[in-house]
Amino acid sequence: MDKLIMTPGPTECSEEVRRALAIKNTNTDMDKDFFELYENTCRKAKKLINSEKSTAIIMLGEAILGLESACASFIEEGDKVLCVDNGIFGRGFGDFIEMYGGEAVHFKGDYRKGIDIEDLERFIDEKGPFKLATLVHCETPTGVTNPIDKICPLLKNKGILSIVDAVSSYGGEEIHMDDWDIDVLLAGTQKCLSVTSGGTLLFLSDRAKEILINRKSSIRSYYANLKNWLNVIEEQKFPYTHSDAMINSINVALERTINRGDFVKAHRELAEKIRETFLSCGFNIYPQEYFSNTLTAIELPEGISFDDMFNYLNREKNIVIGGSVGEFKGKLFRVGHMGENAKEEKIYILLKALDEYFESIKISLDKKLHIEFSKK
Ligand SMILES: *Cc1c(COP(=O)(O)O)cnc(C)c1O
C-alpha cells in the first residue's frame, strides 16, 4: 500500500502536481512565457481568497519566509506591534517582531478558543496605539481557527495594519481578503494546496503597499524584502532566479482546488464528521470552540505514548500522523485533512489503522472509529 501522509502539512501531492514539477525547464529571468505563467498563477491564487484588489507575490522559500518577510518589511525600529497570541505560531511571531527591531506586545487569548473580540478591543484601547498586528488564522499545533472576519475589521478600525498567517487555512477555509480588511495574508504550498514545501504566497492590500513604499528606514534583508517584489510583473524582473517547476506545480494545484468547486464546504463537512467520530468514541478534541476544518487536534488518552502510536502506524500501516510541538508535545495527536488529504477514503484507512492500534495495546474504545465514521 502507498504511504499515507496524514499530517497537517506537508500533505500528499497528487500525481498531477508531481508531474507538474517535472516540466522541461526554461530561463525564468528571460523567458516571457514564464512571466505569463507567474502572472496567471498569481491571478488564480487570489481567487482562493476572493480578492480582486490585492497584489499577489509568490516567493521561493518555505512558508516561514512569508512570516519573516512580513516582519522584516513592515516593522521599523521601535514600532509597537500587537502580537495576537492564542497559540504557538501566534506567540512565535513575537520573536520575528523583536528580531526586526519591533516591540512585541502580547495579547494572550485562551489557547482552546478563538480570539475574543471584545477582550481584544479593550486591550488595544488600553495598551495601544499599535502600528501593526500579527495574528494566525489557523493555529496548526492546536487546531483552533481564529475569527479573522471580525479581528481584521476591528484592527483596521483602530488604524492597525493586519498581518495574517493563513499558512494552514489558505485553500481550505473561507477567506475574503478584501471584504474582511486583511492587509497582509501569508500562505504556503505544502498545506492545503498539496504542493511540496518550498513556496510562499503573500497578498498585500493597497494600504499595506503604501506603508511599505513609505517606510522611513531601509529594510535589513534582501531575500525577505517585499519592496523588491511589488513590480515584478510590470518590470518583468525578479529579485532572484525563480523556479519554473515550483510555479508550474502551484499553478496546477490552484487549478485543482478551483475545479473542486466549493472547497470550503468540502473541508468543513469532512472536518465535522471527523470531530463527531472521535467524540463519539470517547476522545476529547483539544479546542473547545472555533475548530479548524483543515486539521483536528485530539488529546492523547491517559497512558498512551504518542511515539508508540506513531511508530505502530508508521511501521505496520505505512501511515504518518502528526504529533504536536512545544508544550503540547506528547499531549495531542493531530490528523491533517487538508487539500488532497481531505478525502473520506484516506480518513477511513487512517481510522481503521487507529482502531487496530488501540486493539493491539488492549484499549477498548467506546465504538470502532472507522465504523462510526462510515455510518455518518
Ligand atoms: C506550517 C505552518 C507554517 C510554516 O512553518 P513550518 O516550518 O512548515 O512548520 C507557518 N504557520 C503556520 C500556521 C503553519 O501551519
Automatic annotation (TrEMBL):
UniProt keyword Cell inner membrane present: no
Domain of life: Bacteria
One GO molecular-function entry: L-serine-pyruvate transaminase activity
Needed cofactors: pyridoxal 5'-phosphate
Sequence positions bearing N6-(pyridoxal phosphate)lysine: 191
One Pfam family recorded for the sequence: Aminotran_5
Family that this chain belongs to: Belongs to the class-V pyridoxal-phosphate-dependent aminotransferase family.
Name of the protein: Alanine--glyoxylate aminotransferase family protein
Organism: Anaeromonas frigoriresistens
